Structures are given as C-alpha cells and as structure tokens.
Amino acid sequence: MKLTILAGIICFLVCGDALENGLARTPPMGWLAWERFRCNTDCKNDPENCISEKLFMKMADIMVSEGYLSAGYNIISLDDCWLDHNRSESGQLQADASRFPSGIKALADYVHSKGLQFGMYEDYGTLTCGGYPGILNHLETDAKTFAEWGVDYVKLDGCYADPSEMDKGYPEFGTLLNLTGRPMVYSCSWPDYQLDKGIKPNYTFIGTVCNLWRNFDDIDDSWVSVSSIIDYYGDNQDTLIPVAGPGHWNDPDMLIIGNFGLSFDQSRAQMAMWAVLASPLFMSVDLRTIRPEMKAILLNKNVIAINQDPLGVQGRRIYKKSGVEIWIKSVEPISGADSSAAVVFLNQRTDGTPTRVSVILRDIGLTSLFGYNVEELFDGKNLGVYRPDDSLTVTVNPSGVVMIKCTVQTKESLISEADWNEDNALF
Ligand SMILES: *[C@@H]1O[C@H](CO)[C@@H](O)[C@H](O)[C@H]1NC(C)=O
Ligand SMILES: *[C@@H]1O[C@H](CO)[C@@H](O)[C@H](O)[C@H]1NC(C)=O
Ligand SMILES: *[C@@H]1O[C@H](CO)[C@@H](O)[C@H](O)[C@H]1NC(C)=O
C-alpha cells in the first residue's frame, strides 16, 4: 500500500503527461534560415545570400538592432547545408570550413553575446535532407557536441531514416540531449515523416519527448501553401488541439511574411492564424530588405501576445462555410468560469470583394453576462463593450483576416450602461 502511494507520488513528479524540461512554456520564437535561404552554398557567386556564418551574424545583429529580440524573437537557427560532407577525424560533426571559417562554437558565442539563443539543425537519419552527415550511429557524440558548442535549440529532421524507427530514435536522442545537462529545446519532425509513410503518430508519446513537432508539409512561398496548412490544422484539430500546451506544441512551420509570395492581407492572415494556433513563430525572411509594412506585421505586439498567452491553448475552427471561417482561442484574463478570447475571422475566398460577417457573441461561445471589451488587434482599435446577445459585424478582405480580442469584463470593470456599444458595427 505504502509502496503504491509512493510510486504514485514519484510518477506525479516525473511521469508527467508531457516533456518537462522546463523549456518552451510559450511557443518558441525566432528566425530560421530554411524557407528563405534554402541550401544556397554558392558563396563564390552569391556571397550575401549563401548559408554562411556571415549571414547568421548579420541576421543576429538585425534581430537585436531592429526590435525583433525585444518583440520576443530570441532564437536564431541554422537549417540544412551548414555542414562539411565529412565528419572530423575524431568523428565529430563539423561545419563547412569555407562558409563557417570560425566554426559553430564561435558563431554560437557571437549569437549569445547579442542576447540571443542559438539553434542547430540536424537529421535523425544517415544524411540530412540536403545530403550532409546525419546523426544516426553518432547520437551520443552529436548530443555532446551540441552541448559543447552552446546550442539552445535543436531541430531534428527525418530524411534518410526509417519512420518506423523514429518511435525509438527520437526519444533516444532526446534522452541523450537531456543527459548533457544543457537545456536544449527539442524540435522534432517525427510525426510528419510517419504520416507520410501512413503510420499514425502517437502524439501523446511524442509530447513526452519533444517540445514541438512538425505534422504537415514544409511551407513554401505561396498563399496556396499557407492555406493548405490552415486547412490541415482545421481538419485535424480534434487530434492536434489536445496534445498542444506549455512545453509541447504543434509546429505548422515558418512564417513566410516579408518574402515574395504573400500579399499584405495574406501576410496578416498568416500572422493571425499562427497566433491563434499557438504556433512556434519562426520568421524566415531577409531582415536586411524586408518592407516596413511586413516588418510591422511580424512585430505586432497585440498579435504576438495572443500567440504567447500563458494558457497555451491552441485555437479551434468553429465555423467554416462558403470560404468564411471563424477561429477562436481562449486567452487570459479569466473571470470566474469565463475566459477571454482571440477571434480570427478568416476569408479564404479569392473571388474579389470583401465579405461581411456577423456573429452573435453567444453563438461563438462568448456568454459572460458582464460582456466583453472588444479590440481589433492589428491596428489596435478599441470597439467597445459587447454583451453575449449583441451582434458583431466585421468586413474581411479576400484571403485576409479580421482579428479581435474579446476581454471578459468583471462587474467592477463596467462603469455604466453608457459604455455598452450601441451601434454594434465594427467598421
Ligand atoms: C570524405 O570522406 C570520404 C571517405 O569517407 C573520402 O573519399 C573523401 O575524400 C573525403 N572528402 C574530403 C573533402 O575529405
Ligand atoms: C532532464 O529531464 C529531467 C526530468 O524530466 C528534467 O527535470 C530536467 O530539467 C532535464 N534536464 C535538461 C537539461 O533538459
Ligand atoms: C501512446 O503513448 C502513450 C504514452 O507513452 C501510451 O501510454 C499509449 O499506450 C500509446 N498508444 C498507442 C496506441 O500505442
């Protein structure tokens, strides 16, 4: 009896439902090279854009000097193609010496000196997707090397590996990372590769091993790609929502805002949706040349606050009809049984004119008797207090969004009836 109770207590402490390395309590934020810079290794002809220490140092500088770090983007991460094709004589991974002449440790030190964290890319298989050495058969050496280099974040891809082995391999590497004693956020591609092979991922298990994980196709520079990811998250939300929370997140891949493929409205749509999905926010964009209006979207503190809300709830699609969707995410503050909410009205129609959408707050689950203060988030417009039976109307641009926060009111926060919004029109 005593033993059973003790086992129960120990289990309560160490057998939690999810990975408890204390990291990524809110979705991680940073900059990742892949979507924008890919495997460009041609430093001879394209020295400013090739994968090199110069590129990462420059991006680190800008992340600090232009306000990205203070907005919360605190990780700068390598992706594929940083490696030499051969390990060193002692069997360690090594960077391509012509493109990273100072070595990875020096780059990590530089990144740390800027107040940023350093992210690493590797692959569980024999080779990375780009054909560089993977970690298979070297797991322990590589975990130790990452710790010695000062890595804070590890993205582990899954090319050239057997997806059915990943249930064993990803946890094994996670344990080895843990045993180094250096806290490292663990980003896994495990479920994505399993799904591609028709294996149903055990997300409960994956959530005990990884801080975040990819479950769908790589993003590329188009609205079609963004839209397909949003659809995947909506269509699979009953599987994906329960497994997300502080310390363990679904990862719909990078933000492509500021590149070539998205319009201004589509860029706001990606930012709003990634916020409401409690997604990791990794920009993959050339920070040297990004247009100011796109930068403003990435730095919007109202929208980032929804993403980083401490409750860590992944939002849900509660309405979808004729191209119009409504997504909702519970956020702080909470008053009694009622929480506040971020609501995204997403218009996936591309046939032309803006669409008007009206909802009664009660119909989207906002039932607090005291009502909600409603604020439009991108432009920061306060729209007044709405009661549950009030109707709210928004006008949503094609492939665009309107994003609002409904902050639950308390009795005390209501000064007088005069504060009630009477005309109920948003715009
Ligand atoms: C890398 O190693 C292979 C053998 O494993 C060898 O043939 C090749 O010459 C090496 N390349 C370099 C650049 O050292
Ligand atoms: C290793 O795992 C233990 C148990 O989950 C955790 O308490 C500890 O913080 C982890 N350490 C590192 C460095 O990740
Ligand atoms: C999924 O993993 C959990 C936690 O490790 C385990 O308890 C459960 O049996 C697994 N489910 C399946 C279907 O294998």
UniProtKB/TrEMBL annotation:
<keyword id="KW-1015">Disulfide bond</keyword>
<dbReference type="InterPro" id="IPR035373">
    <property type="entry name" value="Melibiase/NAGA_C"/>
</dbReference>
<dbReference type="GO" id="GO:0004557">
    <property type="term" value="F:alpha-galactosidase activity"/>
</dbReference>
<keyword id="KW-0443">Lipid metabolism</keyword>
<keyword id="KW-0326">Glycosidase</keyword>
<dbReference type="GO" id="GO:0016020">
    <property type="term" value="C:membrane"/>
</dbReference>
<dbReference type="InterPro" id="IPR013780">
    <property type="entry name" value="Glyco_hydro_b"/>
</dbReference>
<comment type="subunit">
    <text>Homodimer.</text>
</comment>
<dbReference type="GO" id="GO:0005764">
    <property type="term" value="C:lysosome"/>
</dbReference>
<dbReference type="InterPro" id="IPR002241">
    <property type="entry name" value="Glyco_hydro_27"/>
</dbReference>
<keyword id="KW-0458">Lysosome</keyword>
<dbReference type="GO" id="GO:0019377">
    <property type="term" value="P:glycolipid catabolic process"/>
</dbReference>
<comment type="similarity">
    <text>Belongs to the glycosyl hydrolase 27 family.</text>
</comment>
<dbReference type="Pfam" id="PF17450">
    <property type="entry name" value="Melibiase_2_C"/>
</dbReference>
<keyword id="KW-0732">Signal</keyword>
<feature type="domain" description="Alpha galactosidase A C-terminal">
    <location>
        <begin position="312"/>
        <end position="400"/>
    </location>
</feature>
<dbReference type="GO" id="GO:0005737">
    <property type="term" value="C:cytoplasm"/>
</dbReference>
<dbReference type="GO" id="GO:0009311">
    <property type="term" value="P:oligosaccharide metabolic process"/>
</dbReference>
<keyword id="KW-0325">Glycoprotein</keyword>
<keyword id="KW-0378">Hydrolase</keyword>
<feature type="signal peptide">
    <location>
        <begin position="1"/>
        <end position="18"/>
    </location>
</feature>
<protein>
    <recommendedName>
        <fullName>Alpha-galactosidase</fullName>
        <ecNumber>3.2.1.-</ecNumber>
    </recommendedName>
</protein>
<dbReference type="InterPro" id="IPR013785">
    <property type="entry name" value="Aldolase_TIM"/>
</dbReference>
<dbReference type="GO" id="GO:0016139">
    <property type="term" value="P:glycoside catabolic process"/>
</dbReference>
<dbReference type="InterPro" id="IPR017853">
    <property type="entry name" value="GH"/>
</dbReference>
<dbReference type="Pfam" id="PF16499">
    <property type="entry name" value="Melibiase_2"/>
</dbReference>
<dbReference type="InterPro" id="IPR000111">
    <property type="entry name" value="Glyco_hydro_27/36_CS"/>
</dbReference>
